[in-house]
Design brief:
Radius of gyration: 18 Å
Order of helices and strands: EHEHEHHHHEEHHEHEEEE
Oligomer: single chain
Largest sheet: 5 strands, mixed
CATH topology: Purple Acid Phosphatase, chain A, domain 2
Strand content: 15-25%
Number of strands: 10
Length: about 250
Amino acid sequence: MKSSRIFVLSDLHGHFQLFMQMLEKIEFTQQDTLYILGDCNDRGEDSLSIYQYIFDHENIHLIKGNHEVMMRDAFLTGNDVHSGAFRLWMQNGGRKTIEDYHAYLRKKELSLHSYQNIRSYFWQRFIDFINACPNFVEIECEQSSFILIHAGINPDKPLEQQSEEECVWMREYFYMSPGIKGKTIIFGHTPTCFLHKEPHCFDIWMDPIYHDKIGLDGGLATIYAQSQLNCLCLNTMQNYVIKKNKMEEIP
C-alpha cells in the first residue's frame, strides 16, 4: 500500500478534463491529499464539474482564489447586472461559468419562477462554500513548512493579519519581496511566464533570489497554446506537467 502524499495545483479555470488527466497521471488515491490554490472557474468550459468533484472528495481542499471571490460577490448582488461586482466578474471570464450553470440547472426546460428558485439555492450553496474556503493553509511535510495561498501575502503584515483581498489579489509586491522566514510560500494567480519573464514558459517557478516561494500557475487562463497544468508533490518536490495542447480527452 502506498503511503499518503500531499499534492498542490492551481488555477484550473474550467479545464475539468485536464484536471482528470492530472489525477490519473499522479495516481491520486483516497490516501492522498490535494490542495487546489483557487480559481477553478471561469474562461474554461466546465467549471462546475471541478467543484462537484471537490464536493465529492473529502481529501481535496480548495483555497479560495480571486475568481471564486468574484463569483461569490456577483451572486451576492442577486443577479444585478449593473453592479460593480457583476461587471468585474464578467470582465474576468465569468460568462463561461454562467453559461455552464445555466446548462447545469436546465434553464431552458424550466419556467422562469422555477428556475429562479433553483438558481437562488444554487447561488447560496456556492456563497456558503466559498466563504468556508480558507484564505491560506499552513502545513508541514517532510520536515519542511509551507504556506499554500492563491495570490500571495502583503509583505508588510504578519500572516495572521492578511485580508482576503490581499490573499487572492497580490502580485508584484509579494513575489518581488522576501517571504516569511523558515517557510516556503506556494502560490498561483500569476502565470509563471511572467515570473520567468519568458512569454512561452509555464514551468513552475522557484524564487531565484529569496528561495522562499514557488509559483504554480501554468497559464490555463491565458490565450497561449503552450499553457499547462502543474502539480507539485510536497513529499518529493516532484513536479508533474500536462501540456494543454497535448491533452487527450478522457472518455
